[in-house]
Amino acid sequence: MELKIALLAGDGIGPEVIEQAVKVSDAVAKKFNHKITWVPALTGAAAIDAVGDPYPDETHDICASSDAVLFGAIGHPRFDNDPSAKVRPEQGLLKMRKKLGLFANVRPTFTFPSLIDKSPLKRERIEGTDLVFLRELTGGIYFGKKGREQNGDVAYDHCVYSKDEVRRLAKKGFEMAMTRGKKLCCVDKANVLETSRLWRETVQAMEKDYPEVEVSYEFVDAVAMRLVQWPNSYDVLITENLFGDILTDEASVISGSMGLMPSASVGSKVSLFEPIHGSYPQAAGKNIANPLATVLSAAMMFETGFGLNDEGAAIREVVNKSLSEGIVTEDLADGEKSYGTSEVGDWLAQNI
Amino acid sequence: MELKIALLAGDGIGPEVIEQAVKVSDAVAKKFNHKITWVPALTGAAAIDAVGDPYPDETHDICASSDAVLFGAIGHPRFDNDPSAKVRPEQGLLKMRKKLGLFANVRPTFTFPSLIDKSPLKRERIEGTDLVFLRELTGGIYFGKKGREQNGDVAYDHCVYSKDEVRRLAKKGFEMAMTRGKKLCCVDKANVLETSRLWRETVQAMEKDYPEVEVSYEFVDAVAMRLVQWPNSYDVLITENLFGDILTDEASVISGSMGLMPSASVGSKVSLFEPIHGSYPQAAGKNIANPLATVLSAAMMFETGFGLNDEGAAIREVVNKSLSEGIVTEDLADGEKSYGTSEVGDWLAQNI
Ligand SMILES: CC(C)[C@H](C(=O)O)[C@@H](O)C(=O)O
Ligand SMILES: CC(C)[C@H](C(=O)O)[C@@H](O)C(=O)O
């Protein structure tokens, strides 16, 4: 296959981890006889510095005309503690999600047998966990009207959802449940929020089309609890944008390291693949960041982006091998010998 | 002291657990020579059934003229899966919080040495945890305008905060930090939400008045993660209504059981004390619910409501004793002998 992939390294550790995913993808492409053309483009704080816009039109054009987007990380502390900043790196991410129509964020959470004891949760609680969140990504309070009133003394953010937005996300959830454990949990706060009641009634109306799927409705506060108590009781969870942001980060704890969890954002022609961790500025440039979440995002890209399952499996296999042989960055080394970001990437590429 | 306490049992297991807290409070009052007059009042689904309003005016008058309110639980599944229900038990709770001016919900999270191994989290992660959330309780998306448009196909909820609302909550947070570990974490989503940026700038402006307090600002998704990774790195956390709802429930997992965590809602003359667990309808009427969270809420009532610290300490002591002697409900019994809700209450009252 000839593949054109937009490469958005972004901020902080983004460039370093992306580099490793490129190495590994190239090795896979070589082995399976594909040709990848990488097209780098600016985003995030890096793009603000260069052209004043965290998601420039040029970047959008590159993404929109590619077969997939591989993304590093976005965000810089310089903007976080300046509530008056006019342009923020994160706006680039939001604009990109919206303009590319990426309305569903797919975040699997699973455990690695060789890492299970690194989780803050007890082994018996997490063994066998294999759940996936489908987070709505282009609606809700992230994209509603926001602003100030009364000389800046009052701030507001509007959360809005339409039945269509819920339906297209829920449809993906039901379909995914059919290919997995046939359980779907709709996470909302229907005892307080009108948008949640709209979610609930929309999903309820879809149940009859998927008679084999067992559907449950749980409040977001209860899920925040049960997710760390009994994660292996869940299969597919669907939820709105903000709840998904919070719960998927929480869920990443199960696997023992955020540095491992990949994600896919899907919805229209082009899909985007990115690690769920952030830009981790403290580690930037030190060759210590764990590249595995980005490498596993590349695996998702081959699988769900291009339908190339063997290629994805080859990446997963070499990642598992690196974990069991201890070719890992310091966050996973437990005081044993550790390797640099690029050494891990080299090892993975060589062992594909 | 002569104390008049409004008694709002509410729904589900509410009445059963409240009964035990009354027994224990009466025993403490007897020992320390106080006279408690309990004034029962209707709330929740029970009040809807009786008078069509989950927080009737009569109940409000009783609460407003009492020295404190002791509250059980609210909520009934009959309403949860009916998105079209016009009156909901939860509205009673929200109306009560608003009308009584209870703008701050204080939720301590700590571990019990005798229960530490019941937590889904590993001992070394949670040992020494002693944190407290201050959740804003009468603003934000819970109380903003909400409704439908376009024939019901679009729903909205407005999140609104004023600097004054943030300031009075943050003030309590700074003051509480001064009496504890002198660390304050402001939890927000300032990289996306305007209300969060207002929170952050308001708290930043207050820092200079509390030079001894070390203040940090963290995104809600990061806290959802760190809270289960390194809970003992936190001291006081302040946050808005919805984030607080999610994070405090998540935090309750640390102690090993939701059945243990008390809370206080404060803000004006009368304070309210309630367990953080819900109405747990599956267990209602079975004499199996754990009454300790409500009993410990009564301890908070003596301490922060009436300034009677010895009385509160006496309750905590007898609770600890019951835990170490195994006089516990089945949720804490680990397959060993367990006791009924009322037997635990009797034992506590007798051993005060
Ligand atoms: C960086 C931020 C805007 C973003 C979000 O909140 O969506 C991130 O936390 C994520 O989950 O991808
Ligand atoms: C019952 C519900 C409305 C309530 C809330 O969301 O505030 C509860 O979850 C709580 O935390 O006290």
UniProtKB/TrEMBL annotation, chains A, B:
Annotated binding of Mg(2+), by residue: 221, 245, 249
One family name in Pfam for this protein: Iso_dh
InterPro entries the UniProt entry points to: IsoCit/isopropylmalate_DH_CS, IsoPropMal-DH-like_dom, Isopropylmalate_DH
GO MF entries: 3-isopropylmalate dehydrogenase activity
Location(s), subcellular: Cytoplasm
Ligand binding (substrate): 97, 107, 135, 221
Keywords noted in UniProt: Amino-acid biosynthesis, Branched-chain amino acid biosynthesis, Cytoplasm, Leucine biosynthesis, Magnesium, Manganese, Metal-binding, NAD, Oxidoreductase
Enzyme class per UniProt: oxidoreductase
Residue(s) at site: Important for catalysis: 142, 189
Pathway: Amino-acid biosynthesis; L-leucine biosynthesis; L-leucine from 3-methyl-2-oxobutanoate: step 3/4
Chief localisation class: cytoplasm
Catalytic reaction list: (2R,3S)-3-isopropylmalate + NAD(+) = 4-methyl-2-oxopentanoate + CO2 + NADH
Domain Isopropylmalate dehydrogenase-like: 4-348
Function (record text): Catalyzes the oxidation of 3-carboxy-2-hydroxy-4-methylpentanoate (3-isopropylmalate) to 3-carboxy-4-methyl-2-oxopentanoate. The product decarboxylates to 4-methyl-2 oxopentanoate.
HAMAP family for this protein: LeuB_type1 (MF_01033)
PANTHER family per UniProt: 3-ISOPROPYLMALATE DEHYDROGENASE
Subunit structure of this chain's protein: Homodimer.
This protein's name: 3-isopropylmalate dehydrogenase
Organism: Lutimonas vermicola
Name of the coding gene: leuB
